[in-house]
Write a structure and sequence with these properties.
Blueprint: H1 2-32, E1 36-52, E2 55-70, H2 94-122, E3 125-126, H3 134-138, E4 144-146, H4 167-170, E5 178-182, E6 185-186, H5 190-198, E7 205-212, E8 215-222, E9 224-228, E10 239-243, E11 246-248, E12 255-256, H6 262-296, H7 309-321, H8 325-343, H9 351-370, H10 385-408
Antiparallel strand pairs: 1-2, 3-12, 4-11, 5-6, 5-7, 7-8, 9-10
Helix pairs in contact: 1-2, 1-7, 1-8, 2-6, 2-8, 2-9, 6-10, 7-8, 7-10
Length: 416
């Protein structure tokens, strides 16, 4: 029940975001004097509507987005009443049209930034000093967190009754102990702990020296066996190695909470990192298409493959089911930021395509004026329709692919 509630809540959050996106277009258009005739949440048959002034507001039967109708978005619009010609959008200065068309993405960015600021002052944002690379992790002190078991294969999963118990637990070690030696070999950091374990064999006795609350101690155990690749080649051939059944407790906190003022800078820094990560993720989309198809045909789903609104909603459901509300809101932030960036791509029918054409017209008019040639006027959108249809087709196929993968082989963050 909690899972279903999470799915519904996340889907509703997406619908509200998209509705606010369209409201951004509508409000800026009205502010500049453009005529907006319709603002609807959803598509398909109209369930309810009311007319206020010159705009009809309403709700449609298919809750998969929304739209607003601005009169004369292009010079080729043939449904503009002659009385409305002066208020047609295409007649307005390019900077005003740019603001109107970018207002949707700006709304998504605003939602993401506001949510991030609230998270920064309440739950905290990821610590930028937290060790993230393999080299940084290995330099950390060997302060341990006990595992309940040792998973024999090279995978991440929950323990079962068939898995061997953690040798560290058998040695009476506890969470927070700092290992200082194994069989007399000094351990100064987590990297040395891993290296030393690789010199031992599964089933071999081990004497563990540690420090607990400032006091030294020792314990003995028998090392278990697991499968791991070489330390210097994470993608290399896995082999049987000795395992102690511990993980690392980093010396720095994973998250940092800020005051209201400090949260502003932290939010800006995190947003900058999101922009870089979003750009990198979008570059990888074409090469991830084969992985999506492989997931549909039965192979293991790559966690780095794109997801649809369906997949995002399912992750939101998992987050609520596992009471991971912070993850729920971070998913909301990431999705809004991605949608904001995606809508600014210079491709029709996206908002960015309209913006790109408006500035192309402006640049071309400026250039022709400088070289003494007649202004060629507005771009003929009808000539761009084949390209627009191609973008819609590719986008539709990609959306269908991601939705199918999210239904038959979804990404999961928790064991269910």
């Amino acid at each position: 029940m909690a899972y279903l509630l999470g799915v519904v809540l996340f889907a509703l959050a997406i619908l509200i975001s998209v509705s606010l996106h369209e409201a951004g277009h509508m409000l800026t258009a009205k502010a500049f004097g453009m005529k907006v005739t319709k603002y609807f949440v959803g598509f398909g048959p109209t369930l309810w509507s009311v007319k206020r002034g010159e705009t009809e507001y309403g709700i449609k039967g298919i809750p998969l987005g929304g739209f607003c109708k601005i009169v004369g978005m292009t010079p080729q619009d043939d449904d503009v009443d002659p009385a409305d010609e002066p208020r047609a959008m295409w007649r307005y200065p390019v900077w005003k049209r740019t603001i109107v068309m970018s207002a949707g993405s700006i709304t998504h960015f605003a939602l993401a930034v506001i949510a991030l600021w609230i998270i920064a002052v309440s739950a905290g944002l990821p610590n930028p000093k937290f060790p993230s690379t393999e080299a940084e992790i290995r330099k950390e002190p060997a302060v341990i967190q006990l595992s309940k078991c040792v998973v024999p294969e090279n995978t991440l999963r929950e323990c079962t009754t068939a898995d061997p118990a953690s040798p560290a637990a058998q040695a009476q070690l506890r969470d927070g102990d700092r290992i200082t030696a194994i069989n007399g070999t000094p351990i100064n950091d987590y990297g040395q702990l891993l290296t030393t374990l690789r010199t031992l064999k599964p089933g071999e006795p081990a004497q563990i020296a540690y420090v607990r609350d400032g006091q030294p101690g020792t314990g003995s155990t028998v090392l278990a066996q697991t499968q791991r690749p070489p330390l210097d080649d994470p993608k290399g051939q896995v082999a049987a190695v000795a395992a102690l059944g511990v993980g690392l407790v980093p010396s720095t906190p994973t998250r940092v909470t800020y005051g209201p003022v400090g949260a502003v800078g932290a939010t800006a820094d995190f947003t900058g990192d999101m922009a870089v990560n979003t750009y990198e993720a979008m570059k990888r989309i074409p090469q991830k298409v084969p992985a999506l198809w492989a997931a549909i045909t039965g192979e293991e789903r790559d966690i780095d493959t794109p997801i649809s609104v369906v997949g995002a909603s399912r992750l939101g459901g998992e987050a609520v089911e596992n009471e991971a509300w912070l993850l729920f809101f971070m998913l909301f932030v990431s999705l809004n930021f991605f949608i904001g960036v995606f809508n600014l791509l210079p491709l029709l029918p996206l908002d960015g395509g309209h913006i790109a054409i408006a500035w192309f017209e402006r640049a071309r008019s400026w250039l022709y004026a400088r070289i003494g040639r007649t202004d060629p006027g507005r771009v003929d959108y009808l000539k761009l329709m084949p390209l627009t249809y191609a973008v819609i087709l590719i986008g539709g196929v990609f959306t269908l692919l991601t939705i199918t993968a999210d239904v038959v082989n979804p990404i999961t963050l928790f064991s269910r």
